[in-house]
Amino acid sequence: MDHLINSSDSTHPANHICSLCRNFYTLGWVTGTGGGVSIKDGPHIFIAPSGVQKELMQPTDIFVMEHATRSYLRKPPVLKPSACTPLFLAAFDRGAGCSIHTHSQWAVLVTLLVEQEALRKGTPLADICFEIEKIEQIKGIPKGRGREGMLGYFDRLRVPIIPNTAHEEDLTQSLDAAMERYPDSYAVLVLRHGVYVWGDNVHKAKTQAESLDYIFRLAVEMHGLGLPWVDQDVLE
After folding, report:
1. Which residues face 80 on adjacent strands?
2. What pairing do the DSSP bridges indicate for beta strands 71-74 and 98-102?
3. Which residue spans within 103-167 are E strands per DSSP?
4. Which residues are catalytic?
5. CB contact set of 219 (below 8 Å; sequence gap of 6+)
6. At what angle do helices 13-26 and 202-224 cross, to 10 degrees?
7. Over the stretch 174-231, which tens digit does the pLDDT of each residue have?
8. What is the three-class DSSP state of 69?
9. Cα separation of 130 and 45, whole Å?
10. What are the beta bridge partners of residue 187?
């Protein structure tokens, strides 16, 4: 089944996943074999393997799954399928064309700050959400599924946060629930873990992942300066 991953086209999913992972490694998003990328191309889903150094990946390392049947058409013999696969599928089932999982430090820190505020206020951790407004980079995030255009400067960006679990695949149920509760969100943060971001295609998913990471970093810096993320909330 190597014909599924052999191509000289740099935008072919097998090649594109490798180049994205190399780029994300330089950003600190996929260090220590963490994180992953998956791209849907027609009936096929291309998935980075688990437990490999993402900056060294080659197209021959890529798994290929048939979306409709959830069966693997190509499995590298010495590698393990990504533990993120069920979570990627949740995005693809909702029409996404690319899903990205990072272990960005800024994403993790934002979840810690929201958790800290929730504990201070007595808010159940099952209900926490990162919120920010009046930041220009919010314009890099779409308004939501089935809605035209991007969020604006005065719109409030909301990214749900779900509890972490001992095993990645055990996140699937809570991630799926967060997607239903926040149908306009293109990302879900995982407490003390990282973030899942998806988009209609590779370009949009990458743009959204970069915009969100910028916003998460800015939010952490704002908190350190005592600046509020939204008008009615001042984090202490």
Report:
1. 50
2. unpaired
3. 129-133, 156-162
4. 136
5. 106, 110, 113, 130, 132, 229
6. 10
7. 999 999 999 999 999 999 999 999 999 999 999 999 999 999 999 999 999 999 999 9
8. coil
9. 30
10. 197
